[in-house]
Specification:
This protein has about 475 residues and is an alpha/beta fold. The protein folds into 2 domains: about 290 residues, Aldolase class I (TIM Barrel); about 120 residues, no CATH class. Helix content is about 45%, strand content about 10%. Strands 1-2-3-4-7-8-10-11 form an 8-stranded parallel beta barrel, surrounded by 5 helices. Strands 9-13-12 form a 3-stranded antiparallel beta sheet. A hairpin with a 5-residue loop joins strand 5 and strand 6. Helix 2 runs parallel beside helix 3 and helix 10 packs across helix 18. The two termini are about 30 Å apart.
């Protein structure tokens, strides 16, 4: 049961002297009191605390298992993984965890290849994955809707149960509205026509929202719209209230906060703004369980809040989406931005001045444009993505974009393998929250990443958040 904070007593309406003390009132806030109790109950977790997915298994199976065994929930970072690898990771997690533990998978938007989304969803349904973190979606897609509707069930009392839960990570009100609303009817009818859902599920779709809960993502490591938490969260809370009044739904949609949370002060701010839960990311990348190279972790444990920068997102290169990455000792941000500038100003590789082309080939690619193109072709042929290659054959700008995208995959791989000789090209998704965390734990045993475990960080952060909040309440009372 959630503890109550007793009302403050004064001697009169305009009393100057407040005759109370912490001992006279039950003001103790505990870690399990933070956030929404109903959120913890929904996901069967100890605290209103989640760990977010990070690209290509940085949020690893080991990380997910450690968090689950601590009574919390984390999401496997499946973006960029092959289906074969995702399946093996799921099998490993399910072998290690019993049904009493909570965990989830990431589902990442694929604008160019929606079939990747559908294949991933089919895999999740095969293994009974009942909770996903939907990330980078700008609109509802058939795969996302299929996952949601496949879990619909009408109970004996005629209420609708959604067995497949979606926590949507969003940073824009229009996207939040889409997730807070029923799925688009035209896409529901398309799935019905294809035989993926039943008529009953199609009928029930009108009465549900696309997501169970929303995670508002302020400026963060990786994909980011560079939003401000104190602006975004109230806006989304107002939107939720508006939609609740419109739909009169009994289902409570929780709204949590991610982005910039690496210290108790940041967590206190989130909960005091009314966040139902918090989600951490960057601080978990520099832990024993994180699935990146030790060399990258050595770099990350020493960064400060000013050591990140913005670059184009490789998977959304043409639309100019941004990611936040490590810049200390690394050229990747400036090189990635240069490639996007070239793409924006020229219609083909051959239009670019020869001196610049040589610089890109020698410094960035370390091979010729044509050699990179051969690798790109081989990759898409293996994936049976022939339409992409056909488009490139007709459109020189698209061909250039595919080659530039190769650099992002190359920079990722360098970081994952810890290739010290090519450190300047590392692509490391992280945000300033990790810099703040590093300062918080400086001169303690957690200064070294080799002593950082994701479950212990969660426990420390939530406990010290509660302690700080108690202290702040006492200070307010004494004023």
């Amino acid at each position: 049961m959630q503890r109550k904070i007793m009302p403050i007593q004064t001697t009169g309406l305009n009393a100057e002297h407040k005759t109370y003390s912490p001992e006279e009132h039950d003001i103790a806030v505990h870690p399990e009191d933070l956030g929404a109790n109903s959120f913890r109950e929904r996901y069967n977790i100890k605290y209103a605390y989640l760990t977010g997915a990070m690209y290509k298994g940085i949020a690893s199976k080991e990380l997910v298992i450690a968090v689950a065994k601590a009574g919390l929930m984390g999401f496997l970072g499946t973006a960029g993984m092959s289906l074969e690898r995702i399946e093996k990771e799921i099998q490993f997690i399910q072998q290690e965890l019993g049904s009493e533990h909570s965990y989830g998978m990431n589902l990442h938007s694929h604008l160019d290849h929606p079939e990747v989304e559908m294949d991933t969803v089919n895999l999740y349904l095969k293994y009974g994955i009942t909770c996903i973190e939907a990330a980078s979606f700008m609109q509802m897609t058939p795969a996302l809707i299929y996952y949601r509707l496949s879990g619909l069930h009408q109970k004996s009392d005629s209420t609708i149960e959604c067995r497949n839960r979606i926590i949507a990570k969003i940073s824009r009100p229009e996207v939040a509205r889409a997730f807070l609303s029923p799925p688009p009817e035209r896409l529901v009818l398309k799935l019905l026509k294809e035989g993926k859902i039943t008529q009953q599920q199609a009928d029930m779709a009108k009465h549900i929202s696309m997501s169970d809960d929303i995670c508002v993502e302020a400026d963060s490591g990786g994909h980011t719209d560079q939003g401000i938490a104190s602006v975004l969260l109230p806006s989304m809370q107002s939107l939720r209230k508006e939609i609740e009044q419109e739909r009169q739904s009994a289902h409570k949609i929780h709204i949590g906060l991610a982005g910039g949370i690496g210290t108790p002060q940041a967590a206190v701010a989130a909960f005091m703004m009314g966040a139902d839960f918090i989600l951490t990311g960057s601080i978990n990348q520099c832990t024993v369980e994180a699935g990146t190279s030790d060399y990258v972790k050595n770099l990350l444990q020493d960064i400060n809040v000013q050591d990140t920068d913005y670059a184009p997102a490789g998977d959304m290169f043409e639309v100019g989406a941004k990611i936040q990455v490590l810049k200390k000792g690394i050229f990747f941000p400036s090189r990635a931005n240069k490639l996007f500038s070239l793409y924006s100003h020229y219609n083909s590789w051959d239009e670019i001045p020869e001196k610049i082309r040589h610089q890109v080939e020698n410094k960035y690619f370390q091979k010729s444009f044509d050699q990179v193109w051969q690798e790109v072709q081989s990759h898409h042929q293996r994936k049976n993505q022939h339409a992409t290659l056909e488009k490139a054959a007709k459109n020189s700008k698209h061909k250039m974009a595919l080659v530039f995208r190769w650099y992002f995959a190359y920079a990722n791989q360098l970081a994952f393998t810890g290739d010290e000789k090519n450190q300047v090209d590392f692509q490391v998704h992280t945000g300033p929250a990790l810099g703040a965390f590093n300062q918080w734990v400086k001169n303690t045993h957690l200064e070294s990443w080799r002593n950082r475990h994701v479950d212990q960080i969660a426990e420390k952060l939530m406990r010290e958040t509660a302690e700080l909040l108690n202290s702040q309440i006492i200070n307010l009372i004494k004023r």
